[in-house]
């Protein structure tokens, strides 16, 4: 029997702290590191980040789009990032935000969540806005292979509010319905295999207004919290937004750490320092 992702994530956070560090090789960061905006620069950037952080950070989160922008050669770099990060002991959350229906969702699940795929990560981000049920292929593949899924619920971008805060006929916001559906999946998993943390997470921004944030008390799974640093979120915002479920929160940042590159030592120290601050705040 495979170990569920929720249990593996809990163990990684206990050993390494709660930081999820993004690897986002967008052109501005490549330039700031003095690198060329091509595959060679992409590879140098990404592998420097892996070298600096994969041995210390609980979760690394490569942003798939920045690799895909360089075509097949960029995707080959992403495959290397996933493999070498996992070999160094970090969990890899691939930020791909995929969401589709039927056989297409089956194919995404095979690519990102199935053992033996060169793009298979420990977890992947998905979008539920074709219906939460359309995610079943990804959720089922994740469960079968001991991997995780993080479902977009209430994101940190201002444009998301019109959809995510819309109220359905049952009186719940769309975001709350997503959280509740994820919680149902986690309840079934934990009833079957035990443990304290399910493998279906949600994405809720660290900068959302607590007055409109979804109720996370029934989730029983991890909460990916983007928005720290460059997007204006602070470590203290985590306590304000997430309150009683702080122990489930996986704060994520990229530029706040990556701006310390290209020096490996400075990158590693920045990640360690932020991870320590988060551990102290989240308990």
UniProtKB/TrEMBL annotation:
PROSITE patterns named among the record's database cross-references: OMPDECASE (PS00156)
Catalytic activity annotation: orotidine 5'-phosphate + H(+) = UMP + CO2
Enzyme category, top tier: lyase
CDD domains (alphabetical): OMP_decarboxylase_like (cd04725)
UniProt entry keywords in alphabetical sequence: Decarboxylase, Lyase, Pyrimidine biosynthesis
Coiled coil ranges: none
EC number: 4.1.1.23
Active site (record annotation): 97
Pathway membership: Pyrimidine metabolism; UMP biosynthesis via de novo pathway; UMP from orotate: step 2/2
Keyword DNA damage listed: no
Gene3D superfamilies from the UniProt entry: Aldolase class I
Transmembrane segments: none
Chain ranges of the Orotidine 5'-phosphate decarboxylase domain: 18-270
Matching InterPro entries: Aldolase_TIM, OMPdecase_AS, OMPdecase_type-2, OMPdeCOase_dom, RibuloseP-bd_barrel
Domain of life (superkingdom): Bacteria
Pfam families assigned: OMPdecase
NCBIfam families noted in UniProt: pyrF_sub2
Family per record: Belongs to the OMP decarboxylase family. Type 2 subfamily.
HAMAP family (UniProt xref): OMPdecase_type2
Name of the protein in its database record: Orotidine 5'-phosphate decarboxylase
Taxonomic source organism: Streptoalloteichus tenebrarius (strain ATCC 17920 / DSM 40477 / JCM 4838 / CBS 697.72 / NBRC 16177 / NCIMB 11028 / NRRL B-12390 / A12253. 1 / ISP 5477) (Streptomyces tenebrarius)
């Amino acid at each position: 029997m495979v170990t569920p992702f929720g249990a593996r994530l809990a163990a990684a956070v206990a050993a390494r702290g709660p930081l999820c560090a993004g690897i986002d090789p967008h052109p501005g960061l490549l330039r700031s590191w003095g690198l060329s905006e091509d595959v060679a620069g992409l590879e140098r950037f990404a592998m420097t980040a892996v070298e600096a952080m994969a041995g210390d950070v609980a979760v690394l989160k490569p942003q798939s789009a920045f690799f895909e922008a360089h075509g097949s050669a960029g995707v080959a770099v992403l495959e290397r990032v996933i493999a070498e990060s996992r070999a160094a002991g970090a969990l890899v959350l691939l930020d791909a935000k995929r969401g589709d229906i039927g056989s297409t969702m089956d194919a995404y699940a095979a690519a990102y969540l199935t053992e033996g795929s060169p793009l298979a990560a420990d977890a992947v981000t998905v979008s539920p806005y074709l219906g939460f049920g359309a995610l079943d292929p990804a959720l089922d593949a994740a469960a079968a292979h001991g991997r995780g899924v993080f479902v977009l619920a209430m994101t940190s971008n201002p444009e998301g509010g019109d959809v995510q805060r819309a109220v359905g006929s049952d009186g719940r916001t769309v975001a709350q319905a997503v959280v509740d559906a994820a919680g149902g999946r986690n309840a079934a998993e934990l009833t079957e295999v035990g443990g304290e943390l399910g493998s279906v997470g949600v994405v809720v921004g660290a900068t959302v207004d607590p007055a409109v944030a979804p109720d996370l008390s029934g989730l029983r799974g991890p909460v990916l919290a983007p928005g720290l640093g460059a997007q204006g979120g602070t470590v203290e915002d985590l306590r304000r937004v997430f309150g009683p479920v702080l122990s489930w929160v996986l704060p994520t940042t990229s530029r706040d750490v990556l701006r310390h590159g290209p020096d490996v030592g400075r990158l590693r120290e920045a990640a360690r320092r932020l991870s320590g601050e988060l551990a102290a705040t989240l308990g």
